[in-house]
């Protein structure tokens, strides 16, 4: 009896093992800013010491001066606004024009087999090759830049939607058929919801393609746009202004990417919840 009491007392007295405290983590934004500071600091130091030619590579200080000059004059906002609207219009129209037929091909396996080789052939051709034709057909204005963006984004969206529709779970489709569901109901309840994650993922890819189409059109023939700024500055060997155009394109990419994130949160709320529960660290 005494032995049991002693063992119980010992068990009560022994402290529970302490949980390891999570280590300190530097905020993500601070880490990102530190990396940028190191990169730009090394770039500026290399130019000032003569290790890198400022004429061929520019310098962060020169980029800031060139960017500030364009901001004060209002040129940067004007050109960036032109590129943003052309890219956004091409992205939205191209994605819709490509996604709807891609999903619709699920209705007819025969039609999909007939069309698929043509889609692969069109996708294998660099869309930039169509740029001179698009400029001739639609002129040198904003419409030609939007058309180029549509030509790049639509085929990607179509192929992605078509593949996502084909990958819809066949077992669930068979179960719904056995329960008397129509083809339209299967399409609405199974095919479209299962294809949405792949379609949203394609949105992010199409952001880059939309910007590429717009900028290429501005390279070929345009009086406005960030592509026009980059083309003119590179012709004059003004590398600092070229970098201003490139960094501005990155900023536009972030804006469009944020728009896709908002669309994903509204269309795929269930995916956001799953993601949040999976990665609780």
From TrEMBL:
Subcellular location: Cell membrane
A family per Pfam: BPD_transp_1
Organism: Achromobacter animicus
Top-level taxon of the source organism: Bacteria
Keyword rRNA-binding on entry: no
InterPro entries (alphabetical): MetI-like, MetI-like_sf
Domain ABC transmembrane type-1 as annotated: residue spans: 80-258
Keywords of the record: Cell membrane, Membrane, Transmembrane, Transmembrane helix, Transport
Protein family membership: Belongs to the binding-protein-dependent transport system permease family.
Biological processes per GO annotation: transmembrane transport
UniProt GO cellular component terms: plasma membrane
Bilayer topology term: Multi-pass membrane protein
Ranges that cross the membrane: 24-43, 50-71, 83-106, 118-140, 146-165, 186-207, 241-260
CDD domains xref list: TM_PBP2
Alphabetized Gene3D superfamilies for the sequence: MetI-like
Name of the protein described by the UniProt record: Riboflavin transport system permease protein RibX
């Amino acid at each position: 009896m005494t032995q049991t009491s002693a063992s119980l007392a010992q068990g009560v007295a022994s402290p529970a093992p302490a949980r390891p405290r999570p280590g300190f983590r530097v905020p993500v934004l601070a880490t990102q800013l530190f990396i940028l500071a190191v990169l730009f600091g090394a770039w500026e130091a290399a130019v000032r010491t003569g290790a890198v030619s400022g004429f061929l590579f520019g310098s962060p200080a020169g980029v800031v001066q060139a960017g500030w000059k364009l901001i004060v004059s209002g040129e940067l906002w004007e050109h960036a606004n032109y590129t943003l609207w052309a890219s956004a219009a091409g992205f939205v129209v191209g994605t819709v024009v490509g996604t709807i037929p891609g999903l619709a091909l699920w209705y007819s396996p025969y039609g999909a087999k007939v069309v698929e080789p043509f889609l692969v052939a069109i996708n294998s051709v660099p869309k930039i090759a169509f740029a001179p034709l698009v400029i001739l057909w639609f002129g040198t204005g904003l419409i030609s830049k939007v058309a180029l963006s549509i030509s790049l984004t639509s085929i990607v969206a179509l192929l992605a939607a078509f593949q996502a529709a084909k990958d819809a779970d066949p077992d669930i489709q068979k179960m719904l058929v056995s329960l008397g569901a129509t083809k339209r109901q299967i399409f609405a309840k199974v095919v479209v919801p299962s294809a949405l994650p792949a379609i949203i993922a394609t949105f992010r890819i199409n952001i880059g393609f939309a910007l590429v189409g717009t900028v290429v059109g501005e390279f070929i023939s345009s009086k406005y746009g960030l592509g026009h700024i980059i083309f003119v500055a590179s012709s004059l060997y003004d590398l600092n202004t070229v970098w201003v155009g490139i960094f501005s394109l990155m900023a536009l990419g972030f804006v469009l990417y944020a728009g896709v994130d908002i669309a994903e949160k509204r269309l795929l709320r269930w995916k956001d919840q799953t993601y949040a529960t999976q990665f609780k660290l």
